[in-house]
Write a structure and sequence with these properties.
198 residues; alpha/beta; seven-stranded mixed β-sheet; two-stranded antiparallel sheet; 31% helix; globular
Length: 198
């Protein structure tokens, strides 16, 4: 259990890709990590979202809007999944303000101790804050090549790309190699920290 004691946040909304989300739920836990699914609750105690492929229900009761700086720092990684999750999360009522989910992602990017994982269409969530991607190596779904280039990102033709604290993957079907890379990176960081503390 290489990630024992670590917490991983996965952002959620409707039209999620079920095989990917259920894989994260089990695979990260298998390594000892706590997996927390976060969303914008809109004043509700919980929201039931539906998957894209099979309309499978998934209940979420944790909000990223309620996380202060201390709460955010408790997470070793923040993952933006594939599917339409990021498009739904980047909605804002105030066109002159960042969507709450984008503001949350910007806060995560400000802390290099937090690994940011963005897979497939998840890169849409970073579109309003291109400065966090500009100059960084990444891979996205082929449909988002123009988006990545417009953000100043450097496209790398690989299923998974690591650029320091940013891990990106091509499609939701690459969730297994994406998760493995995040697990390896978090375990390596934890090992370095333990060696330094000794």
């Amino acid at each position: 259990m290489r990630l024992k004691g670590q917490k991983i946040a996965v952002l959620m909304e409707s039209d999620f890709y079920e095989p990917e989300i259920f894989y994260y739920q089990r695979r990260f836990a298998e390594e000892g990590a706590e997996v927390h699914f976060l969303t914008r609750l809109w004043g509700n105690e919980r929201i039931v979202f539906r998957g894209h492929e099979y309309r499978v229900p998934f209940e979420v009761s944790e909000s990223f809007e309620e996380l202060d700086e201390f709460g955010l720092k408790q997470f070793s990684a923040v993952i933006v999944p594939s599917g339409m999750v990021s498009d739904r999360l980047r909605y804002t009522e105030e066109v002159d303000e960042l969507p709450p989910a984008v503001a949350f992602l910007r806060r995560a990017f400000a802390d290099p101790a937090i690994v940011k994982g963005i897979i497939c269409h998840g890169m849409w969530l970073a579109a309003p804050i291109p400065q966090v991607i500009s100059g960084r190596r990444a891979v996205v779904h082929n449909n988002l090549l123009g988006d990545l280039k417009n953000m100043g990102g450097i496209y790398q033709d690989s299923d998974v790309v690591v650029d320091e604290d940013l891990v990106t993957a091509r499609t939701g079907n690459h969730c297994h190699v994406f998760a493995r890379k995040i697990i390896d990176l978090l375990a390596e960081r934890a090992g370095r920290h333990q060696a330094w503390a000794a």
